[in-house]
Every structure is written in C-alpha cells, then in structure tokens.
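Weekly puzzle thread! Below is a chain. First person to post its structure in token form gets bragging rights.
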Amino acid sequence: MSAGKPVLARRRGTALVLAPLLAAFWLVMSGHLTWLHLTLGALSVALVIWVVWRMQVVDKESLPLRIVPRLPLYLLWLVGQIMLSALSVLRLVWSPRRRIRPAFGTVPAAGMSEVAKVVYANSITLTPGTLSVSFRGGDVEVHSLVEDDLADLPGSAMPRRVAGLERR
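Winning reply:
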C-alpha cells in the first residue's frame, strides 16, 4: 500500500461524513419534501461533494468532527466567561476612575492544531475587552483593554479548555 492510499481513504471517509451533514442542513433549510425538491437537493449535495473532492479541501481539518462531542460543554463555559468579562468591562467603563490601559501583545498558541488555534482566537475575540488581531508564527496577537488581562490570558483556563476539545 502506497503512502497516498491512506490519505485518500481518510479524504473519502471525511467526504462520506460530509454528505449526510450537508443533506440534513439542506433539508432543515429547505423544508420542502416534494420529489422535485428532494432530487434537486440530492444533486446539489452531490455537486458540492464532487467540487470539494476535486479541490482537495476535504480533510480532518476542514471537518473537525473530533471536537463535536466536547463542544457543547466548552460553549457553555465560554458563554459564562463572556458574561463575566462583559461585567468586568461594564465596571471598567462606568468606573469614575478610568483604569483603561490598552495593551497589544502575543499569546502563545504553539502546539495547538490549526483548528484549535482558530477556536482559541475566536474565543478571545468573543470575550469582551479582548480582540484577536492575527496569527504570528505559533502565537496569536491580541489587543486588550486592560494590560493585566493580556498578561493573565496564557495562564488562564481558556488554552487548556481549547486543547481539551481535541483530546482523545
């Protein structure tokens, strides 16, 4: 067996998982169950699968199903962090003594997969008071309203929880 065959098998498996997901999404969005609509939906799903197969963009990174089982708990935790951070920003803005000291720096994300880096950067952006600006090497560039928040981010629970999404 050549080295290309396992990669091809993984791509085929990922494409086969993508088909029912796209079909279910199409059914939910369409809501029409006539033969014509079902046939057109099946053809559109087949066309999309063929196009992404030909583009060679179907891989484990493009469809990260491995994080789905742990995602609801992470999102619940993230919503809590968003609320706590929103209260902190509210207090900061309404405080008579403004302690806003914006800071810009990098937060390490080395060792994370591409999917984990994207989840991490988006989680930082969703949290009020912080904004992911770009990736630089293995790090995420972050702007924060408060310098201490930026300094505390690498040691916080967020990178550990993001890494926990991909644990097997």
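Puzzle host: Confirmed. Bonus trivia for everyone else. The mean pLDDT is 85.
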